[in-house]
């Protein structure tokens, strides 16, 4: 086997794992392999997938974004407050996503201009954003939106079959894949993650690349927040806790290197679906939620360990 | 015989890196191991130090057959290696690095005073008295870090010392110190394997030489009985007519002019001009401020005083982006940390400075065309432009860095140690590229520690001494001695 084939096989790893787990589940549960169930899985996956797409950019850059869950909550509260105050739902949704982008830009500025390590910077903003969400909502859920448009974003179907969040996620995926693979910006994300100094000397606008990547991560977290808020028909200031870990898990399962410079967004999509399938399957098999955590964590560790040994 | 390696085979997948290689090292000799990049020198040494297992072949140490499975086992047999890439941990102190993994302890507590004293002894053996053992290793100059590594090998009581390009980062004086030390070790019966591309040094310091080519053993010679040309022929399998190809460029008007340049720390009052088609060499010892000139002019370090003109227009580059927009390129000193993004492909590295694009979307057809033109122009040997740049040999990696800057059609090019870690054949090719660039009107500033290279490649030579200019010499009339004299502060 030559290096090229090995690399291809290595890239196929996450997909093979997904197929393997799906096969096992379809044997063990008759309900798993049905169109309705699979579409349901994809709908559940969409929130984590959107956040994980942004996280892929951040991790390719060699960074990390711990604030995604807090950004989701704060922008969700912002949208709900606006709609409660009578703002047009479409406008409120747009403003919410822009607010998420602005929160991400704050991360980006602290990291690029302030030269703060991403882990520390986003740990700090995570706490600040979460606090602001609690302040703005007075710690209580905001409920009762009377908007068909907004309800459709999380709960609607296209052609009475495909859930709207799945379509949103796929559109985002295609756009982001294009951004990463076909544009100068995407190229620069890989370059800065691979070697920041060499990129700087080659004239790459390193700070601007960082700023935009964290802005993107913020916007995608807010978009995930839109879907969640619509699904629940309420904005919770405590929403999205621990989502950063699911997103990081999806990115890592997909084969993107935590040290930056190497990885691909298709892997992240597969990683997110893998986590979703696992959740769904364990529910169908009525595994206790305590054991579910043990199994999920073990699968992630196993995947990363296999990945390690394949690289040797 | 101290070391005898017989019939060593090693393959990585389908690629045979070593085929039936023999190597013999005697006690008390300095044995040069030469070959072009990719000839298998490093792999052979990695097998000897237990980093790779060999596929076939036998190793004897002191006449006893051994199987070396790990660097630890090699160490126990008295085999130590000083790597080209420094292996010190920058955040730890000199003494902590020296005793890393074999700290002296009593009841689990460190015997700091004893280690401190021993560290001083080993440094004194190397003739170094002004390194504080408590200093962080990362704050030392590259040359000094290497000295610490050598001290570390000495402290292991090594009988076999493998040195991989040890002088690449050393100043002239440090090199002399190193050679004296090597002679001293030799007289004590230590066998030294000396891996280097610097032919002058090999003739100066080595007793024997073994040459590898394409993974095969070509032969051994006694240095005193062999000639330079013969070794080059053994290495490349053909004669290289010109080590330094001659250039016949006509100098145009002044392209780049610098007056009274100062940075905030090292250099002060540097003035020079470079004409179109001219190569201005920059010589000097380590730390004399050679690289700082390029750094400051390229906008990587702040300029505190001075004026710069490009084609008669005053310019002030505050960042690499500005410098590049003026048509200035910079082939940096260390290609692994500053020159290349090793995880990216050859193509992506080449177009890092300037990828053809429309509305931010890369035009892959135009990019492929640009890249393949540059690959052909610089004869970069790679199977595929999409291959990771990491998989290329040193010389070809360096050509990728050149290609990256050729992509911006530079008016001025700074070269910092353009042939460091590049083999003889690769060097000749890089010299050709430099000459071609000059002939096309590019003004070139070439910083180099190799005096023969500076003398042969430059039109004029700026000599630096402690951050100041010690004069600009005409390369036709200057000699190694006159430049060294100026570089060491002689008048």
UniProtKB/TrEMBL annotation, chain A:
Key words, A-Z: Cell membrane, Membrane, Transmembrane, Transmembrane helix
Membrane topology annotation: Multi-pass membrane protein
InterPro entries for the chain: ABC_transp_permease (IPR001851)
Ranges that cross the membrane: 12-29, 49-78, 90-110, 116-136, 157-180, 211-229, 250-278
A Pfam family this chain is assigned to: BPD_transp_2
Cellular location(s): Cell membrane
CDD domains (alphabetical): TM_PBP1_transp_AraH_like (cd06579)
GO MF entries: transmembrane transporter activity
Coiled coil, from the record: none
One GO CC annotation: plasma membrane
Protein name in UniProt: Ribose ABC transporter permease
Organism classification: Bacteria, Pseudomonadati, Pseudomonadota, Betaproteobacteria, Neisseriales
């Amino acid at each position: 086997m030559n290096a090229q084939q090995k690399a291809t096989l290595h890239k196929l790893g996450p997909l093979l794992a997904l197929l393997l787990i799906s096969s096992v589940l379809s044997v063990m549960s008759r309900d798993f392999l049905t169109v309705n169930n699979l579409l349901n899985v994809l709908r559940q996956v969409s929130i984590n997938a959107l956040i994980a797409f942004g996280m892929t950019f951040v991790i390719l850059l060699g960074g990390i974004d711990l604030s995604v869950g807090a950004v989701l909550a704060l922008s969700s509260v912002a949208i709900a407050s606006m709609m409660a105050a009578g703002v047009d739902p479409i406008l409120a949704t747009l403003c919410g996503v822009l607010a998420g982008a602005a929160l991400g830009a704050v991360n980006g500025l602290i990291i690029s201009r302030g030269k703060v390590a991403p882990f520390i910077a986003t740990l700090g903003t995570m706490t600040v954003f979460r606090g602001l969400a609690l302040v703005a909502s007075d710690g209580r859920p905001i409920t009762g939106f009377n908007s068909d448009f907004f309800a459709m974003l999380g709960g609607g179907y296209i052609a009475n079959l495909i859930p709207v969040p799945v379509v949103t996620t796929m559109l985002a995926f295609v756009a982001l894949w294009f951004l990463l693979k076909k544009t100068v910006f995407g190229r620069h994300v890989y370059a800065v993650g691979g070697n920041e100094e060499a990129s700087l000397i080659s004239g790459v606008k390193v700070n601007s690349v960082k700023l935009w990547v964290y802005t993107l991560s913020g916007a995608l977290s807010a978009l995930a927040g839109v879907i969640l808020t619509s699904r629940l028909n309420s904005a919770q200031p405590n929403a999205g806790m621990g989502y950063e870990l699911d997103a990081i898990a999806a990115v890592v399962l997909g084969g993107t290197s935590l040290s930056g410079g190497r990885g691909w967004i298709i892997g992240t999509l597969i990683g997110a679906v893998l986590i979703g399938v696992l959740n769904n399957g364990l529910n169908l098999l009525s595994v206790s939620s305590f054991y579910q955590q043990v199994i999920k964590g073990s699968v992630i560790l196993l995947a990363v360990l296999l990945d390690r040994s394949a690289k040797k | 015989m101290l070391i005898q390696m017989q019939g060593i085979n090693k393959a990585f997948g389908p690629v045979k890196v070593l085929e039936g290689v023999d190597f013999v090292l005697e006690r008390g000799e300095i044995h040069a191991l030469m070959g072009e990049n990719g000839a298998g020198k490093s792999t052979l040494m990695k097998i000897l130090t237990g980093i790779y297992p060999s596929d076939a072949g036998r190793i004897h140490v002191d006449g006893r057959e051994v199987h070396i499975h790990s660097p630890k086992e090699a160490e126990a047999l008295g085999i130590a290696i000083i790597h080209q890439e420094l292996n010190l941990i920058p955040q730890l102190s000199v003494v902590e690095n020296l005793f890393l993994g074999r700290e002296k302890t009593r009841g689990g507590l460190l015997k700091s005073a004893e280690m401190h004293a021993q560290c001083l002894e080993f440094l004194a053996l190397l003739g170094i008295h002004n390194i504080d053992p408590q200093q962080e290793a990362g704050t030392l100059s590259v040359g000094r870090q290497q000295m610490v590594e050598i001290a570390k090998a000495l402290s292991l009581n090594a009988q076999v010392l493998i040195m991989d390009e040890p002088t690449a980062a050393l100043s002239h004086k440090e090199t002399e110190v190193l050679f004296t030390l090597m002679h001293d070790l030799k007289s004590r019966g230590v066998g030294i394997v000396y891996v280097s591309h610097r032919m002058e040094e090999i003739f100066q310091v080595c007793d024997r030489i073994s040459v590898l080519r394409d993974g095969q053993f070509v032969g051994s010679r006694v240095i005193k009985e062999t000639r330079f040309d013969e070794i080059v022929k053994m290495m490349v399998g053909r004669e290289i007519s010109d080590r330094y190809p001659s250039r016949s460029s006509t100098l145009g008007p002044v392209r780049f002019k610098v007056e009274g340049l100062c940075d905030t720390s090292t250099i002060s009052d540097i003035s020079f001009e470079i004409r179109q088609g001219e190569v201005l060499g920059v010589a000097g010892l380590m730390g004399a401020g050679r690289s700082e000139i390029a750094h400051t002019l390229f906008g990587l370090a702040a300029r505190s005083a001075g004026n710069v003109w490009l084609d008669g227009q005053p310019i002030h580059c505050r960042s690499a982006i500005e410098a590049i927009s003026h048509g200035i390129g910079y082939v940096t000193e260390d290609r692994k940390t500053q020159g290349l993004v090793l995880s990216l492909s050859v193509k992506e590295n080449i177009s890092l400075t300037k990828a053809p694009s429309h509305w931010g979307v890369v035009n892959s057809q135009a990019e492929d065309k640009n890249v393949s033109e540059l690959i052909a122009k610089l004869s970069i040997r790679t199977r595929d432009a999409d291959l990771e740049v990491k998989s290329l040999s040193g010389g070809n990696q360096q050509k990728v860095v050149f290609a990256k800057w050729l992509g911006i059609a530079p008016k001025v090019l700074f070269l910092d140690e353009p042939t460091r870690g590049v083999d003889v054949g690769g060097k000749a090719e890089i010299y050709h590229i430099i000459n071609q660039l000059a002939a096309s009107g590019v003004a070139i500033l070439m910083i180099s520690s190799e005096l023969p290279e500076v003398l042969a490649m430059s039109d004029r030579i700026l000599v630096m001494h402690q951050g100041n200019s010690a004069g600009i010499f005409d390369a036709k009339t200057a000699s190694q001695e006159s430049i060294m004299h100026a570089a060491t502060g002689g008048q």
